[in-house]
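Q: For a teaching session next week I want to show students how multiple molecules come together into a single three-dimensional assembly. I've collected the sequence lines for a complex. Could you give me the predicted structure tokens for the whole thing so I can convert them for display?
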Amino acid sequence: MATYPDLLRKFSCFRDLSEDQVNAIAQITDAVCYLPNHVLFNEGEAGKCLFFLVKGEVEILYNIGEEGMVRVDTVSSEEIVGCSAMIEPYTYTATGRCLTEVEVLEINITSLQELMQKDCPLGLKLQQHIIKVLMRQILELRLESPAH
Amino acid sequence: MATYPDLLRKFSCFRDLSEDQVNAIAQITDAVCYLPNHVLFNEGEAGKCLFFLVKGEVEILYNIGEEGMVRVDTVSSEEIVGCSAMIEPYTYTATGRCLTEVEVLEINITSLQELMQKDCPLGLKLQQHIIKVLMRQILELRLESPAH
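A: Of course. Below is the structure for the complete assembly, covering every listed component.
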């Protein structure tokens, strides 16, 4: 497991990290390509990876009672998916399935948590970026919500 | 400015912090009550406080072009509002207005950022809680979204 630091630098959240920090993350990251219909992660499963979408589209599905699996969102490049694996109880709260061919960076969660504990300022920066991504998603969802 | 540490401990995110950590946050927090229609924060304004809702309801409004201010969400107790003030560019991305009488804990953002830099593990824990709150909001918004 490992990828090229330059692949990480395509993402804005890694750009202001030091070379050592990017190298450390590259060591625990895999660059992987998947075909359509591949399931990246399953709702309820223990979180193994955090996914940075480089290319392609991923649908987010929830299992909502009798209706079964229902698509609740579609995400594309530059997005982060599987964030729920980063926080207690460290399981995926949704299913992520590839709609197209997808290129992702998969960061091992256990190793990332260790790295963030060891290099706390790195942890703060990464989590801040995740907060940013989530807030943008909330903004988009609110604007398309029927509530208003 | 300061409040009682016990008021903070009502919120799950402060419960697993040490006594010193809760005391430090209490020092930079105010417990405040507002009447209906009071504006907690304005879209576009520099972020001054992070708000923990103790009691009451707050509506979240966006300024969306010709329609003007539109309600996109309603939040109630145990929620955190004004999270966008925590991340670059440190401004509120929405307006928060009290719908009822509201009791909030207001944490000074500048002091909180300083505290999080100084006590990095505390920073990581707080960010993690914010991520949790945002993920729950996303889950709720997705389920009520017409997209699926």
